[in-house]
Design brief:
heterodimer; A: 497 residues; mainly alpha; 16 helices; elongated; B: 202 residues; alpha/beta; Rossmann fold
């Protein structure tokens, strides 16, 4: 019986121009969203590639100079020397900066620590515009290298980019509302409900048929377009061979299915209330406005108001204060002067320049650490508040989940930054002792410089971060459906609610 | 069943269909309490409203097939066509969309739906109002056929003539109560009209 109703409804839906138009619009907006997302990811990847090429070229220049010097000394049989810090190019026969581990690790050579995009990155741009996907690591203080960290980063839940996540969050509910608002009221108003209800079927079976046909068609479209989007973006990013990509896609489908089910649930609920089609659509449009537009903004605003993050200005001020304090601590003003104008130093003193510089970097780091810590903590508190309030609006659940699944969440980015900071320490540990020992760097050691290897988060982490909220959403959907279907028992075919 | 507008005739029919919960009392079809077992009771009853409303962007045949399947019976396309033919629907209209149907044509599809269900009881709510005399006459013929086949028919109507022609027992309702009952054979057309007007005086 259910099959008969589903088949009948599906036929009617596909015959209706309005439905076909809605589905076509959904397909088009999903396609446009994925195209936009892919562009953003490719832009990011391209800038990371450029950085890698630039840095490799810089390293090569230093290396070429060093090799030339090594050949020069070897040909003449003279010993190699350790070069003091000097910004001027070396004269022939003088040791180049490439021999000095401090100069090399401090500014001449930088490692590009890249956060690779996941296979699903194009599905949700998230904070991509605010968070650079690569970091240039040298021996400067970690807050200097972490300049890509947008500290005033708002919890930008009002997604600015027209990406697939935006289509799912904002537009999909509108289409679902259009498909469901008159499931019963429409038939009641056109008079067919009465004739159908004189047949030996319950209103709940009837509704289940209507629901399944609509949800089935819509999910078919979403799965098909989602798969196309994955193949399209995966082919462009070369991530289709990675099983992680498919795992993320599975999770993405689950999340979207749950979100769609929530809006279908509201369609059933409003139908069960037995009001006119006009009332239904007004109620649903109101819920959409509150859930999708107002609540996310309100929650985001609450989070940033209750736990304001220290501004970028605070960080800069702390750095400047620490910097000037460090300068004052250096007893001789000339010393401070020479640290900025190193080329004017007599050669003996240049040897201490870098030591002073490195010491100052550490002093800076110590001074700024509390501000940064506070920022991270506030960010955590904000995230905590948002995650507590997310159940007020499935749109928030969705935004968080889609970012997490696509690998564009703040949590993944923070984990990456922690890896970068750890690598920064490793970088320093490699170069500082060599510099202090005045070790003359050999060109053969250049390939042994520390390399940044990003440790990808395990799939379990993604499931852990999204699992609870998706389960919460599932419970909400189940409750709405259970209540609505129970309420259908009281539905008067001839009466109005 | 006769009675003025608002006397409760349609409400009675709605009670049998479980569309309205009775404030007191029981409605039974084939011995089944419609409130206790609405789906079981609906297996035995067919219903033709005053205005049969069908799915607009489907043909007459498709409508008949869908409702018939919902009723638990499925037939071959030829059988459906024969049924519509029997109900007097023009053959060329069978495969046209309901959009282009007149009220009488929709009514005929409604009758076909009721017949396809092979129900033991049929509820009719002013089924011939707005039909032309020929269609109305054809409809009465069908009712007599059903009657001969042993189907119980409850028809709400304002057509005293057709009530006498097709009915066995006549009842008059006033303000929700059955105030008069008579056998169709025992009264003449004029007598029915007189009794009806008498009852309406109150």
């Amino acid at each position: 019986m259910l099959k008969t109703i589903v088949a009948h409804e599906a036929r009617l839906l596909l015959k209706s121009r309005a439905t076909v138009f809605i589905l076509a619009l959904l397909v088009a907006s999903m396609m446009f969203g994925i195209w936009n997302g892919l562009r953003a990811v490719e832009r990011q990847n391209a800038s990371a590639r450029t950085a890698i090429v630039d840095e490799a070229a810089k390293k090569q220049r230093v290396l070429d100079e060093l090799i030339a010097y090594e050949k020069f000394t070897a040909a003449r049989g003279i010993p190699r020397e350790f070069a003091p810090v000097n910004h001027a190019p070396p004269r022939p026969g003088e040791p180049p900066q490439g021999t000095n581990a401090g100069a090399v690790g401090g500014e001449k050579v930088r490692e590009v620590a890249v956060l690779p995009a996941t296979g699903l990155a194009a599905f949700s741009v998230g904070q991509m515009d605010l968070q650079r996907n690569y970091t240039l690591v040298d021996m400067k203080n970690k807050f200097n290298i972490a300049d890509n960290l947008e500290i005033e980063n708002p919890l930008n839940l009002m997604a600015g980019t027209f990406d697939l996540a935006f289509v799912i969050m904002f537009i999909l509910p509108i289409f679902i509302i259009a498909l469901t608002y008159d499931m019963l009221s429409g038939e009641k108003e056109s008079g067919t409900l009465a004739l159908a209800m004189t047949q030996p079927i319950s209103l709940r079976t009837f509704m289940a048929g209507k629901l399944l046909s609509r949800a089935g068609i819509l999910m078919l479209v979403i799965v098909a377009v989602g798969l196309c989007a994955l193949l399209f973006s995966g082919a462009a990013l070369g991530s289709l061979g990675d099983p992680g990509t498919w795992g993320r896609f599975g999770l993405w489908l689950l999340a979207v299915l749950l979100y769609a089910a929530f809006w279908f649930g509201l369609g059933v609920l409003v139908s069960a209330l037995n009001k006119s089609s006009e009332t239904n659509i007004t109620i649903l449009a109101g819920i959409w406005l509150v859930m999708v537009v107002i609540m996310p903004t309100l929650v985001s605003l609450t989070a940033t108001t209750v736990y304001p993050a220290p501004s970028r200005m605070d960080l800069k001020v702390a750095m400047r204060d620490a910097s000037s304090a460090a300068e004052k601590a250096e007893s001789e003003t000339t010393k401070a002067y020479y640290t900025d104008h190193v080329e004017m130093l007599p050669s003996k003193e240049t040897e201490t320049y870098l030591t002073v510089f490195l010491a100052r970097q550490e002093a800076l780091e110590r001074a700024v650490e509390p501000v940064f810590d506070n920022f991270r903590k506030q960010q955590d508190r904000q995230a905590g508040l948002v995650s507590r309030f997310q159940y007020f609006s499935p749109a928030i659940v969705m935004q968080l989940a889609l970012n997490e699944i696509s690998g564009t969440s703040t949590e993944r980015y923070n984990a990456y930054m922690d890896e970068v900071f750890a690598f920064h320490q490793e970088w320093r540990k490699y170069f500082t002792p060599r510099y202090l020992r005045k070790e003359i760097l050999d060109s053969s050691t250049y390939k042994d410089f520390p390399k940044f290897h990003y440790t990808a988060e395990s799939p379990n982490v993604v499931v852990q971060r999204t699992g609870l909220s998706l389960f919460g959403l599932f419970l909400i959907v189940a409750a709405i459906m259970a209540y609505s279907f129970a309420r259908l028992r009281r539905y008067g075919v001839r009466e109005n609610g | 069943m006769l009675g003025a507008n608002g006397a409760g005739k349609t409400t009675t029919v709605n009670c049998f269909l479980n569309f309205i919960k009775p404030t007191s009392g029981l409605a039974r079809i084939n011995g089944i309490d419609v409130q206790e077992d609405p789906i079981g009771s609906k297996k035995h009853v067919a219903y033709i409203p005053e205005n049969v409303m069908l799915y607009r962007n489907m043909t007459g045949l498709e409508n008949l097939r869908y409702f018939s399947k919902l009723g638990g019976h499925d037939y071959s396309a030829d059988e459906y066509r024969a049924l519509l033919d029997r109900c007097g629907l023009q053959r060329e209209a069978v495969d046209l969309y309901i959009d282009g149907y007149s009220k009488g044509m929709r009514q005929k599809v409604g009758i076909a739906i009721a017949l396809a269900k092979q129900a033991k009881a049929v509820l009719l709510d002013e089924p011939t109002s707005g039909l032309d005399p020929k269609s109305s006459n054809e409809f009465s013929e069908l009712l007599l056929e059903l009657k001969a086949a042993g189907v119980a028919i409850l028809m709400v109507t304002h057509d005293l003539f057709r009530a006498k022609e097709t009915g066995t027992r006549l009842g008059i309702m006033r303000q929700g109560e059955l105030v008069r009952e008579m056998l169709a054979d025992e009264v003449s057309h004029t007598e029915i009209e007189q009794i009806y007007l008498e009852e309406m005086k109150y």
